[in-house]
Amino acid sequence: MKIINTIEELQTIRKELKGTIGFVPTMGALHEGHISLIKNARINNDIVIVSIFLNPTQFLPNEDLDKYPKKDAADKRICELCKVDYLFMPDVNSMYQSNDEISIKAPKITGFILEGEKRPGHFDGVLQVVLKLFNLVQPSNAYFGKKDAQQLSLISQMVKNLFLPINIVECDIIREADGLAMSSRNIYLSIEDRKEALAISKSLNMTIIAITKGERDAKTIKTKMKEIMSNLDVEYIAIVNRNFEEIQTIEVKNTIILIACKVGNTRLIDNMWI
């Protein structure tokens, strides 16, 4: 595995690469969720590139940029074990060259609902950095987890709207043994917080059971989920179709149920694709 730290070196290497390129962009603190993306990329591509870049523009002023977990040594080892070919680890000054850059904006509707409403400007930063990385890596296939469902949808829309020749691969959520969705922020949870957080996946599992038994009313599903998560600080429960339009009736194979909540001081998101 070769570690690349500069834009210039990546551009030079990229010119020489042949075959399909699988790309996994990350912010580091790699876990089993990231590993599943890398493994998918390894199986289906000639070359695998992973990036680790803690992107400041997607964090709001009061969020956890400064304390976001950093595990560079462990991350490098994980990438080696997963047989990554190139690990790109740029610094902020390389990725953002001035305070007056050309910028990209999230769409006015789907970029400002749910996570976009709770974290205004977040998706502008996400799309900005992903577009930069796409332009540098020029991947054949890029791998993203379904856990960040709205982010995944907006990145797919950006690829479509800007005519980027990249295939976006959606990868299933990876969960801890107890059902908690894998997240770099899980390390913030105390033992008690973690027990409380299990209500999130419990509420989502309930929806599967209810839908299997024939329940299709979104309002009824939400009510049952709120009951299960009554001890949590729930920011939203949303039931939408794949275009992120709110729906009143569950549509099998075209529904996503999303949750955002705070457990202690930690904000967690999760979802279920129906």
Explain this structure to me?
The protein has helices at residues 7-16, 32-44, 72-81, 92-95, 115-118, 122-137, 149-161, 191-212, 218-228, and strands spanning 2-4, 21-26, 47-52, 86-88, 141-145, 167-171, 233-240, 256-263, 266-273. It is of the alpha/beta class and 274 residues long. It has a six-stranded parallel β-sheet with strand order 1-4-3-2-5-6, sandwiched between helices. Strand 5 (141-145), helix 7 (149-161) and strand 6 form a beta-alpha-beta unit. Helix 6 packs across helix 7 and helix 8 runs antiparallel to helix 9 (218-228). 33% of the residues are buried. The model has no long low-confidence stretch (mean pLDDT 96).
Low-confidence stretches: none
- Percent range of helical residues: 25-40%
- Strands, total number: 9
From the N-terminal CA to the C-terminal CA, the straight-line distance is 38 Å
Overall morphology: globular
**Element order: H for helix, E for strand:** EHEHEHEHHHEHEHHEEE
Spatial ordering of strands, largest sheet? 1-4-3-2-5-6
> How much of the sequence is in beta strands?
15-25%
Mean pLDDT, nearest integer?
96
What is the count of DSSP helices, taking H or I runs of 4+ residues?
A: 9
